[in-house]
Amino acid sequence: MKVLPRFRAGWVISLSVVVAVPHSASADVLHLGFKSVTNSIAGDVAIGQAQLSVEVTDEGLGAGQVKFIFRNVGPAASSICDVYFDDDGALQGIAGLVNGPGVSFTPGSASPPDLPGGNNASPPFQVTTGFLADSNAPVQPNGVNPGEELAILFNLSSGGTFADVKAALISLDLRIGIHVQGFQSGGSESFVNDPPVNPVPEPTSLSLLGLGLAGLGFGRWRRCRGQ
């Protein structure tokens, strides 16, 4: 009589893992932090590196688009006011943007037109024509302040895939620059993204993991029957 409950428990746990895995791997996502290319005030640099990030997501099979979501997690005063892209061919152009609550950006131009301090990056940051956006006046209040976000949607180059974008970010053929104002000091700093670290596993890998766990549950059931 004790065999049946152990049999059921093993299978319920294993099957729940297999069912849940495809749902959790529905999209490919990269999370990127930023490092400074200027160092006017060390405290402002530390705030930017701690609070600012960009999430890069695949818009799905056949969409031919990729989304860059800029976030400021706070709490220290700071505002992403300008966004720049240095691209060597992975992206075709800005398809649109989504301003989160409290954010107001316009794509296609920025003031200044080049990332301040971009020459300090290695290699120097060169803004791709038209691949930029900035906050509308009043600049700092309409930027990405603590608790806010901005999404910029790009069309991929002809025949391009999200894997190409990921490879370009790793090789630094695609880089993202931001100009940040609104620090309590009154200063401003510029940042360039770090290469991707620990990208989300591909769906195939996650599915194999789920099947492996299911196999362990089946093996446990067989051993129980043999007792």
Could you describe the 3D structure shown?
It is a single chain. This protein is globular. Helix 1 (3-24) packs antiparallel against helix 5 (203-226). It has five helices and ten strands, in the order αβαββββββαβαββα. The chain has helices at residues 3-24, 42-51, 139-142, 162-171, 203-226; strands at 29-36, 52-58, 65-72, 79-87, 91-99, 105-107, 132-135, 148-156, 174-181, 189-193. The two termini are 12 Å apart. It has a ten-stranded antiparallel sheet. With 227 residues, the protein is an alpha+beta fold. It has a single domain, classed as Immunoglobulin-like (Sandwich), CATH 2.60.40.
Keywords:
alpha+beta; ten-stranded antiparallel beta sheet; Immunoglobulin-like; disordered N terminus; 31% strand; 31% helix; 227 residues
Sheet-strand content, in percent, reads 25-35%
CATH class: Mainly Beta
Elements, N to C (H/E): HEHEEEEEEHEHEEH
Outline the low-pLDDT stretches: 2-26, 199-218
**Annotation field: number of helices:** 5
Count of separate structural domains: 1
